[in-house]
Amino acid sequence: MKKIYTTFQEAVKEIRDHSTVMVGGFGLVGIPENLILGIVESGAKHLTVISNNCGVDDWGLGLLLENKQIDKMIGSYVGENKEFERQVLAGELEVELTPQGSLAEKIRAGGAGIPAFYTPAGVGTPIAEGKEIREFDGREYVLEEALTADVSLVRAARADRFGNLVYNKTARNFNPEIAAAGKVTIAEVEELVDPGELDGDHIHTPGIYVQGLVEGQQEKRIERLTVRQEA
């Protein structure tokens, strides 16, 4: 059985100043929003955060930005956050941008124990500056190093008490890779069930990657509402 936390604040107690934290999600979909709020309340600072993006101005990882808790952000997309832009231009935030596919593979490789890999993405651009370039079959590839974290935070729809996780549709996104790449992984789940209640063929993250669980409901905000215009 995994550690079951009763509060989100308790679940993030391993995150201290200068920790490296991976956070699942894509936009606001599949983010562990209550665990992020737990970090906000903890006051942990000088964090390095690895995530596809940094939330929006008033929600998700954007709250950590507003609270000046992040020193460095490693991600692939930053277009929905004005405070992110302001901090970068002011020299208050270090940013390492990575092609989205490379970011996913860097995280996956970290969870698989693979230290580095070659990819054509980024060759001939600033992404490749200072990195090893090799040629395979007449094409150049850049060496990208794997990513791991002190703590990984993920969001799942259901989990059993052994830590097996099931994600809901597109909320799966980066979560399985991030769950595997943390030294400690904490999962925020909507429904916690007894062992045997999950279909073994439908488990997305095996419990071996998860150290702790906390149950709670989400606000589930919509990042950008788009509706069909009436005729």
From TrEMBL:
Pfam families: CoA_trans. The keyword tRNA processing does not apply. One of its GO terms (molecular function) is CoA-transferase activity. Keywords: Transferase. It comes from the Bacteria. This is 3-oxoacid CoA-transferase. It comes from Salimicrobium jeotgali. The lineage of its organism: Bacteria, Bacillati, Bacillota, Bacilli, Bacillales.
